[in-house]
Specification:
- 81% of the residues lie in helices and 0% in strands.
- It has seven helices and no strands.
- It has one domain (3-136).
- With 139 residues, it is an all-alpha fold.
- The longest helix is centred in the C-terminal third of the chain and has 27 residues, at 110-136.
- The termini are far apart.
- α2 (11-30) packs parallel to α7 (110-136) and α4 (59-77) runs parallel beside α7.
Length: 139
C-alpha cells in the first residue's frame, strides 16, 4: 500500500486534516486577504473527505466541533465575559474526543487521545483568535 494511502487510513491523520480544514476556513472567512489559509483549508477538507471514506467520522463529533468553533467566534464578537469561549472550548474538546473514538480502538493509550484533543482545540482557538485579531489591525 502506498504511504499516502496508508497515512490517510489512520483516524488521527483524518482528525488532524479536519482540524486544519476548519482552522484554515475560519481564518480565511474572518481575516482580510487570506488566500493561502483558505486554499490550505479547502485542500485539507478534500483530503479529510478522502480519509473519512475508510471509516466515517462521528456525526456528533463533527457537530460538537462546529458548535465549539461557532461559540468561540461568538466570544470575539459579543461581550459574553468568557461564557461562550469556555463553552466553545468544552464543545470542541468533546467533539474532538468523539472524533478520536476510532483511534482509541486502534491504540490503547489514553494519553495520545487526550493529547490530540487538546492540541486540536488549541489550534482552533489560536486560529479563531488570530483571525479576529488580524481583523482589528489596521490594513
Amino acid at each position: 500500500m502506498p504511504f499516502a494511502v496508508a497515512a490517510l487510513n489512520q483516524p488521527a491523520v483524518a482528525y488532524c486534516l479536519v482540524i486544519i480544514a476548519i482552522a484554515g476556513l475560519v481564518y480565511a472567512g474572518v481575516a482580510r486577504a487570506a488566500f493561502v489559509p483558505g486554499f490550505a483549508g479547502v485542500a485539507a477538507a478534500l483530503l479529510a473527505v478522502l480519509a473519512c471514506l475508510h471509516e466515517p467520522p462521528s456525526a456528533l463529533g463533527l457537530i460538537g466541533l462546529g458548535v465549539g468553533v461557532v461559540l468561540m467566534n461568538i466570544e470575539f464578537v459579543l461581550p459574553t465575559f468568557g461564557c461562550a469561549g469556555a463553552s466553545g472550548i468544552a464543545a470542541t474538546l468533546w467533539g474532538s474526543w468523539q472524533l478520536l473514538e476510532p483511534y482509541a480502538r486502534i491504540e490503547a493509550r489514553l494519553s495520545w487521545r487526550i493529547a490530540f484533543a487538546v492540541a486540536g482545540t488549541g489550534l482552533l482557538l489560536a486560529a479563531v483568535g488570530r483571525a479576529w485579531r488580524s481583523r482589528t489591525l489596521p490594513p
